Input
Amino acid sequence: MEQINDLALKNFREYLRIPSVHPNVNYNDCVKFLKQLAEDIDLPIEVIRVKPTKPVVLITWKGERPDLPSILLNSHMDVVPVFEDKWKYKPFAADIDNGKIYARGSQDMKSIGIQYLEAIRRLKIKGNICKRNVHVCFVPDEEIGGEEGMKLFVQSEEFKKLNVGVSFDESYASRTNEFVVFYDERVCRQFSIHCKGASGHGSFLLENTPGEKITYILNKFYEFRDSQRELLKSNIHIERGQVTTINCTRISGGVQDNVIPCEMTISFDCRVPSSNLETFEKMMNQWCKDAGEDCDIEYHQKNYPASQTKLDDSNIYWKAFERVSMQMGFKLKPEICPGTTDSRYLRQIGIPAFGFSPINNTVPLLHAHNEFLRVETFLKGIDVYCSVIYELANIVENNY
Ligand SMILES: [Zn+2]
Output
């Protein structure tokens, strides 16, 4: 046991030492490392290039019933930049101090990629064979939106051939004993509102000016913003993913100080829970109308809700996941992801997708200085995946 734990830890640290950090990530060393690891566990590997410099690495543990929908275990290879002078340890050295592994990617999410594979190694050693194919997938570019990563991969023929029934990807570390599970994400809306109106000398009190319209709109958006902040603060049961966030990100217009311009523009970044989207959209359209004529919305990002992954008896994968959590005595805490992850690309094409990181009792340090993961938490996570993979890859009750 000690030996196999040491091996897992060694592989984890080796992976952390590859600086697959933005901007302009070179993924070659990740691919090379994963090829060696797959060979060591005796699993077939395929490298799919969705773009010449953007590899998707796919490692497969074949099941007895490849006709059944498969299990996809996804992680991203890239990590966000570091401010090295703010770190106690070198961010790509994977030093261990007091039982903690310090490195960029230790929580987000190189740990999980290794845990998937080390779990399969253990299941294989014990002689387990599963019914369904299990695909362990490593994608590029999640941290910059996945446009040349998962988004392209899900559209490829190679992906369709996998016949994916359910996917797992990241959530985030939880401070409590529970594990956070994402089943949905907020919808991102970014837009500019162009307000046109009367133009003239800066000494007049004209009516119908762009300035008045912008003021009205800004006030409405920020009144609503206040209500959402209040909601989040006053109710401990409400999570960040359940409220709408609004931020004014740009205001522009005008030519010189003594001229009232004929147009001013105001831009917002809004993240809206999918259940509130329709109401929100109606409300903001009304604000623009009430602000006066000629207030037009120009969208830069107009995302639509992906289908939420169901957490009820109709979802056989959720039932199995819950069974495992009961057997192992851990608690799952379903949440709507406040940001975005690659899971949305799977949900958009109708595949149930869980965001899940087996990291509890840990300060969430994704994208932060001195990101670390306890060795103990890392090793426990492998046990969690052993059970999750075994349970889910053996579901035969229907083809979902
Ligand atoms: Zn991540």
